[in-house]
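2024-03-11 09:14:02 DEBUG pipeline.ingest accepted 1 chain
2024-03-11 09:14:02 DEBUG pipeline.ingest length=110
2024-03-11 09:14:03 DEBUG pipeline.predict start
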Amino acid sequence: AKADVGCDGCHDLSATEPLVKVVQKACVTCHEAGFDEMLVEWINDDQKAVQELAVLVAQAEGAPGAGSHRAEIAQAKTIYEAMLAAKGPHNTSLASDAYARAKKLLAWTK
């Protein structure tokens, strides 16, 4: 996590409530009210970025000239896979930077 917080700082693995609700409660124990709603925004933004990258990578793989851009496609695909696994709300700044980097790598498709 960006703030050097351990997993159990936000996640209660023994909780029976839905994960997002548990994490939202943790947000407001350290931050002011409203951070719980920001979490939902971060999750939605991250999911949108990951889905968009999936489409962009697939389009790049099938685009004319893809053969001469294998390295860029591979790097963008690695970023996509990392974002898919890492979950952006853990470090929104890094996720945003990674997303921008992947889009730049695939800019040749436009």
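2024-03-11 09:14:41 DEBUG pipeline.report The first helix runs from residue 19 to 30.
2024-03-11 09:14:41 DEBUG pipeline.predict end
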